[in-house]
TrEMBL record:
Source organism, top-level taxon: Bacteria
Classification via SUPFAM superfamilies: 6-phosphogluconate dehydrogenase C-terminal domain-like (SSF48179), NAD(P)-binding Rossmann-fold domains (SSF51735)
Root EC class: oxidoreductase
UniProt name for this protein: Glycerol-3-phosphate dehydrogenase [NAD(P)+]
Locations listed in the record: Cytoplasm
DNA damage found in the keyword field: no
Organism: Caulobacter ginsengisoli
GO molecular function ontology, one term from the record: glycerol-3-phosphate dehydrogenase [NAD(P)+] activity
Signal peptide: none
Keyword set, alphabetical order: Cytoplasm, Lipid biosynthesis, Lipid metabolism, NAD, NADP, Nucleotide-binding, Oxidoreductase, Phospholipid biosynthesis, Phospholipid metabolism
Function of the protein: Catalyzes the reduction of the glycolytic intermediate dihydroxyacetone phosphate (DHAP) to sn-glycerol 3-phosphate (G3P), the key precursor for phospholipid synthesis.
Pfam hit, one: NAD_Gly3P_dh_N
Length: 338
C-alpha cells in the first residue's frame, strides 16, 4: 500500500494560528491544491481573510488564494485531513488542548512552532504528546521568512516525521515548485535546531547593534551552532539533522537579516534600548525572548555548556548588561575547537 492511500487522500488542511507564519503556510497549502481553513483568534483577521482575502494585521500586502477561508472556531478544523499547528510555542499547549475535543485519532498534526516551553522545559512534540496523544506528529522547521514564503519565493525546509510513509505523504501534499520540504525522521533534532536558533539570533543582533564586526558575527554563528548541536544530541537528536535546513540553515537565515524578529530585538538591545523598548509595538512574537530562559534551564538540567545562550538569557533577565555579558564571553578560557 502506498503512503498516500495508507493515510487517505489529503485534500484539506487546517491552520491553528492566524499570525504571519500561519497565514504564509495557508498560502503554501492553497498553492499546493488544498482547501485551507485558517483559525485565528482576532476577529479582524477572520473578517479580512473571508472578505478581502488579506491578513492586513499580520501579513499586509499579500493577497491570499481564494481556497483559504478563516474561522475563529477550532471545531471547524475537525474535518481537515491534516492540521498545521502554528500557534507560538508558549501558547501551543493551550491551543492544542482547546483543539483536542475536535481531533480524531490518527490525525496528522504538523508542528510549526519553534521553542522550548517555559516551566516544563518541553519541546513541542512533548507538549503535543500530552495534549493530543492520539494524533500523529510531525515537525516542520527550516530557513523561512513568512513574507517571502507567502509571496512564493523559493524556500526549502525540513519535514521531520518518524513514520516515513506519513512524512512522504505530508511532504507531497504541501510541496510546490517554490516550497520544498526535505524529509527526516528525527523530530528532536529538528525541534532543537528551531528552538535554539531564535536565542542565537538575539545574540547576533546584539553583535550587529554593538558594531562588533563581521568576524565576530561569523564566530558567534559558528560557536552558536556548536551549542545547538550539543543540546540536540543531549536531548536524543542527531547531529546530522541539526547540520541541515532545520538547524544550520535556519541559523544562518535568522542570524543574518534584520527582517528576523529575534535578530531585530538583539539589534535594539545592542543599540542601547531596554528589552521593553525593543519589544514595544511588535504584533509578532520574537520566540527567542521566551525560549532563552527555557533553553538555559534545559541545558543546565542536561549538563550541556551553552555560554552564548546563557549570556542572552542573562541579558534578557536583567542579570547582566550587554557589555558585561560580551566581556564574559570574551574572557572565557581558550579551548580546543572540538
Amino acid at each position: 500500500m502506498d503512503s498516500e492511500s495508507a493515510i487517505g487522500e489529503i485534500a484539506t488542511a487546517g491552520m491553528i494560528g492566524g499570525g504571519a507564519w500561519g497565514t504564509a503556510l495557508a498560502q503554501v497549502c492553497a498553492r499546493a491544491g488544498l482547501r485551507v481553513t485558517l483559525q485565528a483568534r482576532e476577529p479582524e483577521v477572520v473578517a479580512g481573510v473571508n472578505g478581502q482575502h488579506v491578513n492586513s494585521l499580520f501579513l499586509p500586502g499579500v493577497t491570499l488564494d481564494a481556497a483559504v477561508s478563516a474561522t475563529a472556531d477550532l471545531a471547524d478544523l475537525a474535518g481537515c485531513d491534516i492540521v498545521l499547528a502554528v500557534a507560538p510555542a508558549q501558547h501551543l499547549r493551550s491551543a492544542l488542548a482547546a483543539f483536542a475535543p475536535h481531533a480524531r485519532p490518527g490525525l496528522p498534526v504538523l508542528l510549526c512552532a519553534k521553542g522550548v516551553e517555559q516551566g516544563t522545559l518541553k519541546l513541542m512534540t512533548e507538549v503535543m504528546a500530552e495534549t493530543l496523544p492520539a494524533a500523529a506528529p510531525a515537525v516542520l522547521s527550516g530557513p523561512s521568512f513568512a513574507g517571502e514564503v507567502a509571496r512564493g519565493l523559493p524556500t526549502a525546509v525540513t519535514l521531520a516525521c518518524p513514520d516515513e510513509d506519513l512524512g512522504q505523504a505530508l511532504a507531497q501534499a504541501i510541496a510546490t515548485p517554490t516550497f520544498r520540504p526535505y524529509q527526516a525522521a528525527d523530530m528532536i533534532g529538528a525541534e532543537a535546531g528551531g528552538a535554539v536558533k531564535n536565542v542565537l539570533a538575539i545574540a547576533c543582533g546584539i553583535v550587529e547593534g554593538k558594531g562588533l564586526g563581521r568576524s565576530a558575527h561569523a564566530a558567534l554563528i559558528t560557536r552558536g551552532f556548536a551549542e545547538m548541536t550539543r543540546l540536540a544530541v543531549a536531548l536524543g537528536g542527531e547531529a546530522e539533522t541539526v547540520a541541515g535546513l532545520c538547524g544550520l540553515g535556519d541559523l544562518v537565515l535568522t542570524c543574518s537579516s534584520p527582517q528576523s524578529r529575534n535578530m531585530s530585538v538583539g539589534l535594539a538591545l545592542g543599540g542601547g534600548q531596554s528589552l521593553e523598548a525593543a519589544l514595544s509595538g511588535k504584533l509578532t512574537v520574537a520566540e527567542g525572548v521566551a525560549s532563552a530562559p527555557a533553553v538555559r534551564a534545559l541545558a543546565a538540567r542536561l549538563g550541556v555548556e551553552v555560554p552564548i545562550c546563557e549570556a542572552v538569557a542573562q541579558i534578557l533577565a536583567g542579570e547582566r548588561g550587554v557589555d558585561e555579558a560580551i566581556l564574559g564571553l570574551l574572557s572565557r578560557p581558550l579551548k580546543t575547537e572540538r
